[in-house]
Design brief:
Helix Hairpins, alpha+beta, Heat Shock Protein 90, Arp2/3 complex 21 kDa subunit ARPC3
């Protein structure tokens, strides 16, 4: 019969159409946005249905072809039910283009529209059965759509029911199942490509959402950082103002206790009390001065007095102040300055002395036996001056070496209780070193000692150098 010729012609045309569609999809559709891609896919399926009807076999006004194949494929290619309905309606409208407006065309268009509705139901079923594999869904779609087509033609087809069921359906149904199975096998790779595309799209959406969440988190962190910076500024300003306010009455206490001590007998009770008050007030004043220095640096109110400084004068002053304390503890104390160190450097002499005094005081305080001292050298480049304060004291664990530079921190509670102190000296020293254009680093081994290295530039970080220093160099 001519059914075989017609169906094999349909198969050849649809295979060619599928191959061309695959090429067009890979090089055109894939890179398009989804809103533009879907209409193009729907039009392609409608065109395939029209092409099948165009070369179908006509019998008593009825056209037999493979128009149902695009509907079957649509159940596997789309995840929206109304897409299948649109394809069914589109192919139904093409029915009038093939044979014009007639009763047969009307019944054919109704049949293909009903197939689109059935396909929409299958898509909704597959959405609820996501665990079903391709083979199961393809078999269900193939059988369901073909059986629905047979039922539709039997109920309201253009041919007598007995004629269709006895002489035509025995040929068209097996051929339809066979050709549909062939196409389902052909488009399997395309189906896998579609799944990969959907997975990539889902991953992209997830990544976009995660990126948005990260941006929101970043903005929130930036906002919190600003709030913390503002709070830190308020705290520094408060400490700066309070330190000034506390020094005024404290200076009065120191002065009055000194006067009482001088006017009383040292061995008397009042003289002893005055001595205790004076020494305690001096210690309290030192703590307040440390807090004031820390708050000045944090608030950006620390004024640096740049000028020529004699390294020899600084080291001699430190030796005179700290050697008696070290000797009292039975420690070897030395300050060694290399011959290549310049006699004068440009820096803030007061702050340089303060840093080195803090470091040497700690070296003596935390050393019970052995030695403590200072070495002054130039680095290998000749552009940096190195002040290395070393001791053979308690040392610091590697995991705690950053903690000791934080304000109010010492290595642990035991050290704090045994040696006392506020824990401000190293924090102030590091910030002063940075203000001088240098850095302060630590190398230490627990139980063997520590080396604090102050690194300062020979050339000050200033655009204008003090005129007197320029004249002396000229």
């Amino acid at each position: 019969m001519n059914f075989y010729t017609s169906f094999f012609t349909n198969i050849s045309l649809l295979i060619t159409c599928a191959y061309l569609f695959n090429l067009i999809y890979k090089y055109t559709f894939r890179n398009r946005m989804m809103p533009a891609k879907r209409p193009l896919l729907i039009l392609t399926f409608v065109f395939a249905g029209w092409l099948a009807m165009k070369f179908g076999i006509e019998l008593n006004g009825a056209v037999f072809d493979l128009r149902n194949v695009p509907i079957i494929l649509a159940t596997l290619m789309f995840n929206r039910a109304y897409f299948a309905v649109l394809i069914g309606i589109g192919i139904a409208a093409c029915r009038y283009l093939v044979n014009g407006v007639s009763m047969n065309a009307m019944t054919g268009s109704i049949n293909i529209t009903m197939l689109g509705i059935v396909a929409a139901g299958l898509i909704m079923l597959y959405q609820r059965r996501e665990h079903w594999g391709y083979v199961r869904k393809a078999a269900i779609s193939l059988v369901t759509i073909n059986v629905a087509q047979v039922v539709g033609i039997s109920l309201y087809g253009a041919l007598p029911r007995e004629l269709y069921l006895s002489q035509i359906m025995p040929y068209t149904l097996p051929l339809g199942l066979l050709s549909g199975a062939l196409f389902l096998f052909i488009v399997y790779d395309f189906y896998k490509e579609k799944l990969r595309g959907e997975e990539l799209s889902q991953m992209n959406r997830t990544l976009i959402m995660q990126t948005m969440e990260l941006l929101d988190a970043k903005r929130e962190l930036e906002q919190r950082a600003k709030q913390l910076a503002q709070s830190s500024k308020y705290k520094s300003d408060f400490m700066y103002n309070m330190s000034h306010e506390l020094r005024t009455p404290l200076n009065s206490i120191i002065l009055l206790s000194q006067l009482i001590y001088e006017n009383e007998d040292e061995q008397s009770e009042n003289g002893e009390y005055a001595s205790i008050i004076h020494s305690s007030s001096q210690e309290l004043l030192q703590i307040i001065n440390d807090i004031l220095d820390l708050s000045k640096v944090e608030a950006g109110k620390m004024d640096m007095e740049w000028g020529p400084v004699s390294t020899q004068d600084v080291t001699q002053l430190l030796y005179q102040q700290l050697h008696p304390i070290a000797a009292k503890k039975g420690l070897q104390f030395s300050i060694v300055q290399s011959d290549d160190v310049p006699e004068l450097i440009v820096t803030d002499g007061l702050r340089l002395t303060q840093i080195l005094r803090n470091l040497l005081s700690n070296a003596v305080k935390f050393t019970d036996k052995g030695s403590a001292g200072l070495e002054v050298n130039l680095d290998s480049s000749g552009e940096w001056l190195l002040f290395a304060v070393s001791d053979t004291g308690i040392g610091i664990e590697s995991e705690n070496q950053n903690i000791v530079f934080e304000a109010f921190q010492q290595e642990d509670g035991e050290v704090s209780r045994k040696y006392e102190g506020t824990g401000l000296g190293l924090s102030i020293s590091r910030q002063l070193a940075q203000a001088l254009g240098g850095s302060l680093s630590l190398a230490s081994v627990k139980g063997k000692g520590s080396i604090f290295t102050l690194r300062l530039p020979l050339k000050p970080p200033l655009e204008k150098v003090d005129a007197e220093w320029e004249d002396e160099n000229e």
